[in-house]
Amino acid sequence: MSSSLSAAQPASASTDRPGSPAPAGPVAAEPATAGQATAGPAADRVAQADTLLCADRQFGDSPAIGERNLARFRLGLTMLARHDAEAADVLRETAAASDERLRPLLYDPVLRNCFEVDLARLDSGRFEHSSFAAYVRGHLTTGAVADAPATGTPTMDAAPSDAVPSAGPSEALMRPHRPAWPGLGDAWVLAEPAPQGDAQKLLAERLMELYRDALGDGRAAGPVDPTDETLAVLRDGAELLATLLPAAGAGVLGHVGVVGFTSRESEEGPLQSMSGGDPLPSTVLLAPERCTSPWLAAESLLHEGAHLKLFDALRTGSVVRNATEQVPIPWRIGSWTVIRVFVALHFYVHLLVFRAAADTAGEAVRERFGPPPPAEDLDEPSPGTPAALNGAYRTSGERARYLAECVLSLPDEALTEHGHRFARWLLTALRLVDEDAPRPRERAATTRPAEPGPSQQGGPTGALQRVTPVDACALPGLGQLVVSPARSARMHWLNARSWTVYSLCDGRDLGSLHTAYARAAGLTAGSEEVGRQVGDSLRLLVASGLVTHDG
């Protein structure tokens, strides 16, 4: 990671937007594996929906989501290092670590929480010292290799050694260590920590503090120690999920880093399951009763894993322009924000695909995991709501259709480009398993005036220049560059077009930029398309403070 990356062009200056979803029609899917699903149109549509749910590069493709989050992690640590001289060495060295070393830190609940808190404080101007650095330094010191330098920070990429921990800091507190679903991912089972040494004691205290905060009860008891039978059903549930939905099911499991069991009563009733979000990142908490059958466990893991997957995806691409806009929900008191509508719709689509897959499951699945339970109504609507009075919106299908209609009724300006694609992608998948669901709406093509060409007036005049210094991280395989000016606390995600325009802002004027961009993108010099693409990208770059002009 360095400022020099910002000047490099992407691997290919495509004129298509990177991360575009699969076509809106039926998606070609791999044939269902023998014994997984019965043959027929219904099974084919389930397989298509499963494939489609992982086709979108921004929201469905888990490896791409993970790659963007690692890039964000590296860049964020580098940004923090600029503002914390005492921790700069450990922050920069962590940012430079290999993906294999970095991933357990990114998905550690304590370190991820500290990282997000540090970034939020940096953005608000309240950052003083990195809490992330304090915990990762303790972890590195505890697990440092024997031949680490006598001075300075323990190296993240030292030669392999038995002394180098393969687990993340919080995972290393678990004794005994229990993997959640061996062979399907690296998730581990949460238990009461067993710290050794002062650094681990501080980490253990913070982990349990986050656990209680996530439950909303500072006096809550610690995690429930699961029985061997509960763990066996948990593993069966994960295997069932990955068997029924080889793409989407296996994908959501990869976003779960920790599984904990808890018993929690509230005024709304006993806790069934929850995902941690910011308070307890990468974590799913389940009531032990959710692991009384593989089908129940699989549905719970899909529910909470889908939330964690979307949480990771939204870190690097927003879908709404107004985060406070409200939508009435007839089965709940009060309204939801538009982003909450998207989160709920995202889950319901996954759930309906899962249930459709259960209906078409072959005999091999039923023999191994037992017959799927009959479809059940959702929890009752809140008392006094329209749904409670008229008996509507009790099933997943009804609620998904309502939320889909809400999304379709939003004005175009309410959503970002990501948001429009997200809506079309989800509704296309929903239609594959629910023919009564509303159709995705294709946006009407809009004709905008071309940006000023070399001989036109109105564009920025004078020399166009990238600001320096910057921190940047390139993702050439995704056609993206994430970059932040050194004086800023914001990250900016550039697609292939904007990245190309950015790389060409080396002091040339607008006319020369148009000519160079047309050559790089393989377009006709002086065309309206060149003017539009350069104009759109340049507005973004100037507004973000990444490019200046002296005219």
SSE blueprint and pairings:
Elements: H1 41-52, H2 62-83, H3 88-95, H4 99-106, H5 109-124, H6 131-142, E1 188-189, H7 198-215, H8 228-244, H9 248-253, E2 258-261, E3 265-266, E4 269-270, E5 273-275, E6 283-286, H10 294-314, E7 326-328, E8 335-337, H11 338-359, H12 363-369, H13 386-390, H14 396-409, H15 417-433, E9 464-466, E10 470-475, E11 480-485, E12 492-494, H16 496-504, H17 510-521, H18 528-543, E13 547-549
Parallel strand pairs: 1-2, 2-6
Antiparallel strand pairs: 3-4, 5-6, 7-8, 9-13, 10-11, 11-12
Task: Quickly describe the structure.
The chain is an alpha+beta fold and 551 residues long.
Which key features would you list for this structure?
single chain, 551 residues, alpha+beta, four-stranded mixed β-sheet, three-stranded antiparallel β-sheet, 18 helices, 44% helix, globular, disordered N terminus
Strand content: 5-15%
Largest sheet report: 4 strands, mixed
Helix content: 40-55%
**How many beta-strand runs?**
13
Counted by DSSP, the helix tally is 18
Distance between the termini: 31 Å
Q: Judging from the principal axes of the Cα atoms, what is the shape?
A: globular
Average predicted confidence as pLDDT: 85
Multimeric status of the protein: single chain
Coarse structural class? alpha+beta
